[in-house]
């Protein structure tokens, strides 16, 4: 099974990109992992929010396929401790899905069609983070989950 992290827009910060690359390399020791960057919507600043979300949603949905388990990183999602997330991920990895797609949307969230396609929603916190920062926080948590599942000496509890 593979895991894809689908992101709307490029990563603007070299520091964030470097951290993501480091954690991506670490995750790849445990699973096939890739990061998919979708382009920013053209002239997004001049578009109404709903039109921007719709355009982003169409790009996101083109990246998913039947049989994928789609997880939105969303403020309305379920919050889990790291060990709970690891257990949840372990269950999904042994499931029937061919790929798990974790998706970070743009600054205004997801379109209704993307919410309808989602199999699950996860929240990293009740606090709001920039969608740029969420990328790094989530890749670190994904690596942490694999380290917990494999009893590696990364997570301490």
From TrEMBL:
Q: Which residues bind S-adenosyl-L-methionine?
A: 73, 105, 124-129
**Alphabetic keyword roster:** Cytoplasm, Methyltransferase, rRNA processing, S-adenosyl-L-methionine, Transferase
Query: What is the first-listed, main subcellular location in coarse terms?
Result: cytoplasm
Q: Which Gene3D superfamilies match?
A: 3.40.1280.10
UniProt record, GO biological process = methylation
* HAMAP family membership: 23SrRNA_methyltr_H (MF_00658)
UniProt family annotation: Belongs to the RNA methyltransferase RlmH family.
Please describe what this protein does. Specifically methylates the pseudouridine at position 1915 (m3Psi1915) in 23S rRNA.
What's the protein here called? Ribosomal RNA large subunit methyltransferase H
Top-down, what is the taxonomic lineage of the species of origin? Bacteria, Pseudomonadati, Bacteroidota, Bacteroidia, Bacteroidales
